[in-house]
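Summary for the steering committee. The consortium agreed at its last meeting that each partner would contribute one worked example illustrating the joint modelling workflow. Our contribution is presented below. We chose a case with several input lines so that the handling of multiple components could be demonstrated. No manual editing was applied between input and output; the record is shown as generated.
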Amino acid sequence: MFYQNKNIIVIVTGSIAAFKAAVLVRYLIEQGAQVRVSLTAAGAKFVGPLTFSTLTKYPVLQDIFDQNDGQVLHVKWARWADYIFVVPATADFLAKAANGLADDAASSTLLASSARKIAAPAMNDQMWENQATKRNVKQLKKDGWLIIEPVVGFLAEGYDAKGRLPEPEDIILQAQVRLLAEKGSLKGKKILITAGGTREALDPVRYLTNRSSGKMGYNLAQAAAEAGAEVTIISPKSKKTAYPLKQIEAVSALEMFDSVKKELKNNDIFISAAAISDFRPEKFSSQKIKKNGAAGLTIDLVQNPDILAQAGREKQNRFIAGFAAETEKIIDHAKAKLVSKKADMIIANDVSRSDAGFSVDTNQVTIISKKTVKKLPLMSKLAAARKIIDEIAKELD
Ligand code: PMT
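What follows is the complete predicted structure of the assembly.
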């Protein structure tokens, strides 16, 4: 876990979003971090120190003159920290940090520390758009700060605009992805991933599909983003993600085929994790098909293009990986797909297991390349995705 055993100071400044900092502190602790909180005077007007000292089991730093065993506390804390999160960060606090002001315990801790700094600003939308704030944020980025931008949402002012603090778990995850990406094994690479089950329309209300949830594909997207790659994902339905991701919606196999064709040339790596329907109804009925007392209904199906095989044919220098969803002779069938689809890697999963493959959060995969066969134990889809991305990076090395 990324935050395991990390020393983290959370600075809480004076915004209505300060209450969310308590949840953030709790998540960091749950992820194995040692957390201490410094509250500014304005922050303490929104949330009391007792909340944070109870969560962290540590006194909250509020006074610049606080000492412990004759040592100035903010300097001691500054040396202890691996990361300093400022959540929420007000426009005023950002201005202070950008200019190196240190007139209270929180800003003095920041100035005295070489820890990596992460700020999640939250404020009125006009304040966020103000040239002075923009200048300060630009300066902080230049100084190496990670800025988790506010999101568009309902503000305390009573309307929707950009200025809202992202949810605490999104702040933590975005920081994790972006920090890992800085030294990632796929830095500078562009990766295209397909995810989810395609839908083949029969009439305006019915379609043929499968049990794919898109989880494997989206976990691969996270693992690839953590590895520093620029990620594009094509799936039937976009998902909200904590980190930046280019998402393209393609519902049917034909739409996915067109989108992959368009995007492939811009990417160095392609992973086909989508469960793409092999067949589609020959005819789409523009009106809802009626029972009309008929005893049965026959639907003629025609074959869809094989997207992975097409990508294999247009391979050039691209790394191509596919999945094999198998129920028997898993390795043999997957090896056959490696050859027939001209892929560099096939990830075989036994979809007959109830804890692997479609819809569940875990998977048991075997990574097959031209050189190696690596059978992995059952693990979360995210852990499996990270292993797959590691293997791809090794193959590219
Ligand atoms: O989405 P989840 O619920 O997390 O489930 C994950 C998963 C089980 C869908 C995933 O791990 C997986 O196995 N995806 C591939 C499913 C599949 O279609 O397998 P296949 O053996 O039928 O196809 C082999 C490969 O060809 C796959 O990479 C597939 O994306 C690709 N293919 C298949 C048909 C087609 N017309 N075009 C293709 O490109």
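The mean pLDDT is 96. The two ends are 25 Å apart (CA to CA).
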